[in-house]
Backbone:
C-alpha cells in the first residue's frame, strides 16, 4: 500500500503547551518500511516497547514492513543474552518484526557488528569528499578540553583542531600507525526539516557542538553514522524514534546530504514518563518487559496502557487489542505532549484483557494449560484430588472468576488455595460461630443431593437464603461464615480482596467436592 506523498500545502496545526506547531499531514510515496533499533546493552523496557509498538502499528496501518535492527557497535557495554531477549519480548508482546536477526530478510544482516564494511565505505567516502577527517587527538587532550570548558562555565565540545591538518601531516600520522578516529565536518547553515510530529525544526549544530566522531578508534561506527547508513541500505522510509533524538536530526541530515542520499521522513515520539512527570528510568526494575511477563501481566494489557496514556488514536477507551489499535491509529493525532504512564492502573487493564482471553475459546484453552502447570508447581503434593487440574474444572473456575481477577497468579494465592487443596479447620473455629454446625452441615448435604450434578449460581443463592431460615439461633452472617469455613478454611475475605460468594464457591467446587467438605465438617463436629 502506498503512503501519500508529503503535501506542503496541507498543514495541521497542533497546539501544545508552548506553541502552535505546523506539520504536514503525511509523508512519502512508496513502500513503507520502519525500524526499531535498540542497543543490546540492556533488556527491553517499557519505553522501548512503546517505540517498537508505534513503529509496528504504523507499518501495519499502511501495509508496510517492521524491521528489528540491533545496534551492537558499543561492544564494551553489550549485555549477554540481551539481543535474544529483545526479540523474544517483542514476539511475546505481539509485535513481531517482519525482518530481524532471527527471521532474516532481504536487507540483512540485522546486527550492526556484521555490517562494518558498509560503515567503513561511507566514512571513507566522507573523507574523500572533504566532509570528514582523521582526528589524532589523545583522550588526555580531550579530557583537558572538557575540564577547561566546565571550569569556564561552558558546554564541553571538541575544538575541531584536527580539521586543519594538512594532507601530508595526516599521511605521516597514519603511516606511523597513530591511534585515530574519523570525525564528520559540521557546517553552518543547516536547512530546517519537517518532523511528522513536532513540525518544522532547525538546530544549527555547528554553533553548539564540535565535529562528531563517526568512526571510533576500534573501527566501529558511532550511532550517528551507523543509523543513517543502515536506514539508507535497508530502505527505511520513516524513522519513528524518541524525541530525545530530535536535536540530533539536523546533524544526521547533514550526513545524508554529504553522502548524496535521500533521507527518510522523521517523526519523533514524545517521551513516556511517570504519572508525576518524572523520567521513566531503567533503574526502576519493574519497567523491564521480562518483569511484567514474570508477574503475569498480559502483553495486550501492556500495549493497551502504553497507548492509552499517549496520543495517536481516535479513542482512549480501555480494552483495545492490537487490531483495534491499528484501526484507530492516525499519525496526525500524535501530539507533542509527553505520555504520562500510571502503572497503578495496570491491574485494571490486565483484568479487562484477561476477561477477553477467558471468553475466547482458543485463548481460554491456553490459559487452562498455563494454569494447570502453575497449580502442579505451586501445590505439588498438597493436591488430594486430581480432578482439580482437569480442563473442565479449571474452565469453570475461570468462567466464574472472569472480571474479578487481574491475573492467573491470583488464583494461586492462599485466598484461592481452597480451589486446589482441601482446607483444614478446628472444632474451636466451628464452635466460635454456632452450636448448630452439625444441623447446618446436614442441611447443605441434603440441598446438594436434591440439586444433582448441575449447580446454577442464581438458584443456589436463593437456596442458601432459604436454608438460613431453617436454623434456630444462627444468624445469616454466622451461617455464611460457617459455610465459607467448611468450603475454604476461611471465614471472610479482607477488604482488599474481592472474594467469591459462598454460592460461587460451591458452584466452582461442584457437588462431589461439596459433599466431601461438608462430610468433613460433620466429622469435626463429632470429634469435639
Residues:
Amino acid at each position: 500500500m502506498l503512503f501519500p506523498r508529503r503535501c506542503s500545502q496541507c498543514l495541521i496545526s497542533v497546539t501544545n503547551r508552548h506553541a502552535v506547531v505546523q506539520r504536514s499531514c503525511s509523508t512519502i510515496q512508496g513502500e513503507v518500511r520502519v525500524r526499531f533499533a535498540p542497543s543490546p546493552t540492556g533488556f527491553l523496557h517499557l519505553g522501548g516497547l512503546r517505540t517498537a509498538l508505534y513503529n509496528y502499528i504504523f507499518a501495519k496501518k499502511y501495509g508496510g514492513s517492521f524491521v528489528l535492527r540491533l545496534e551492537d557497535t558499543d561492544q564494551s557495554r553489550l549485555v549477554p543474552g540481551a539481543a535474544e531477549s529483545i526479540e523474544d519480548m517483542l514476539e511475546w508482546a505481539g509485535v513481531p518484526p517482519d525482518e530481524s536477526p532471527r527471521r532474516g530478510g532481504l536487507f540483512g544482516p540485522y546486527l550492526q557488528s556484521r555490517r562494518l564494511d558498509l560503515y567503513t565505505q561511507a566514512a571513507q567516502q566522507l573523507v574523500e569528499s572533504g566532509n570528514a577527517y582523521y582526528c589524532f587527538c589523545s583522550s588526555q587532550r580531550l579530557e583537558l578540553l572538557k575540564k577547561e570548558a566546565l571550569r569556564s562555565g561552558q558546554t564541553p565540545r571538541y575544538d575541531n583542531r584536527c580539521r586543519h591538518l594538512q594532507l601530508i601531516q595526516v599521511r605521516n600520522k597514519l603511516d606511523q600507525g597513530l591511534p585515530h578516529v574519523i570525525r564528520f565536518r559540521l557546517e553552518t547553515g543547516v536547512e530546517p526539516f519537517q518532523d511528522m510530529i513536532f513540525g518544522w525544526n532547525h538546530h544549527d549544530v555547528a554553533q553548539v557542538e564540535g565535529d562528531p566522531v563517526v568512526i571510533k578508534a576500534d573501527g566501529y561506527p558511532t550511532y550517528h553514522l551507523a543509523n543513517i547508513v543502515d536506514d539508507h541500505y535497508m530502505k527505511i522510509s520513516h524513522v519513528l524514534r524518541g524525541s530525545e533524538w530530535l536535536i540530533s536530526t539536523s546533524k544526521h541530515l547533514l550526513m545524508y546530504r554529504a553522502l548524496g542520499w535521500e533521507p527518510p521522513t522523521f517523526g519523533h515520539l514524545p517521551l513516556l514518563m511517570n504519572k508525576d512527570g518524572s523520567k521513566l528510568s531503567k533503574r526502576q526494575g519493574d519497567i523491564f518487559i521480562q518483569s511484567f511477563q514474570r508477574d503475569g501481566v498480559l502483553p495486550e494489557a501492556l500495549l493497551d496502557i502504553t497507548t492509552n496514556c499517549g496520543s495517536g488514536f481516535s479513542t482512549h477507551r480501555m480494552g483495545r487489542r492490537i487490531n483495534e489499535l491499528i484501526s484507530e491509529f492516525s499519525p496526525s493525532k500524535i501530539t507533542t505532549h509527553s505520555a504520562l504512564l500510571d502503572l497503578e492502573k495496570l491491574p485494571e487493564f490486565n483484568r479487562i484483557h484477561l476477561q477477553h482471553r477467558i471468553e475466547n475459546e482458543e485463548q481460554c484453552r491456553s490459559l487452562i494449560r498455563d494454569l494447570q502447570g502453575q497449580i502442579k508447581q505451586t501445590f505439588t503434593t498438597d493436591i488430594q484430588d486430581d480432578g482439580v487440574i482437569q480442563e473442565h474444572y479449571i474452565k469453570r473456575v475461570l468462567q466464574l472468576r472472569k472480571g474479578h481477577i487481574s491475573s492467573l497468579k491470583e488464583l494461586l494465592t492462599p485466598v484461592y488455595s481452597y480451589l486446589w487443596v482441601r482446607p483444614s479447620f478446628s472444632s474451636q473455629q466451628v464452635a466460635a460461630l454456632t452450636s448448630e454446625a452439625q444441623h447446618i452441615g446436614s442441611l447443605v448435604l441434603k440441598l446438594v443431593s436434591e440439586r444433582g450434578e448441575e449447580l446454577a449460581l442464581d438458584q443456589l443463592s436463593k437456596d442458601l437464603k432459604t436454608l438460613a431460615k431453617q436454623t434456630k439461633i444462627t444468624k445469616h452472617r454466622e451461617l455464611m461464615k460457617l459455610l465459607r469455613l467448611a468450603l475454604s478454611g476461611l471465614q471472610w475475605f479482607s477488604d482488599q480482596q474481592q472474594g467469591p460468594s459462598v454460592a460461587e464457591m460451591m458452584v466452582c467446587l461442584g457437588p462431589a467436592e461439596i459433599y466431601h467438605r461438608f462430610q468433613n465438617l460433620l466429622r469435626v463436629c463429632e470429634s469435639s
Remarks:
- The CA atoms of residues 422 and 516 lie 9 Å apart.
- The longest strand covers residues 11-15.
